[in-house]
From TrEMBL:
Protein name: Ferredoxin
Lineage, opening ranks: Archaea, Methanobacteriati, Methanobacteriota, Stenosarchaea group, Halobacteria
Domain of life: Archaea
Any matching Pfam family: Fer4_15
Length: 81
């Protein structure tokens, strides 16, 4: 099922543990040693990234968020109404 959702990554809270990387391959290690995510150009400053997706991979993103020990990732379904 395709759903639209938003993934927010608070890079200021990230400790570079990378539990997210093994659960969702859209998360990668940035050159500064912290996690980053493909944002399609959407960013809210250097320390917070927001990416919006419309695909069937919301569960991957949710697993990445649950695995983050510092709670730096939020996944929110987007209501298009």
């Amino acid at each position: 099922m395709t759903i639209e959702y938003q993934v927010r990554l608070d890079r200021d809270a990230c400790d570079g543990i990378f539990a997210c990387l093994v659960r969702d391959d859209r998360f990668t290690e940035a050159s500064d040693g912290l996690a980053t995510i493909d944002t399609d150009g959407s960013a809210n400053g250097d320390d917070e990234l927001t990416a919006r997706f419309a695909d069937d991979r919301i569960e991957d993103a949710r697993q990445a968020a649950r695995a983050c020990p510092v709670g730096a990732i939020d996944v929110t379904a987007v209501d298009n109404e």
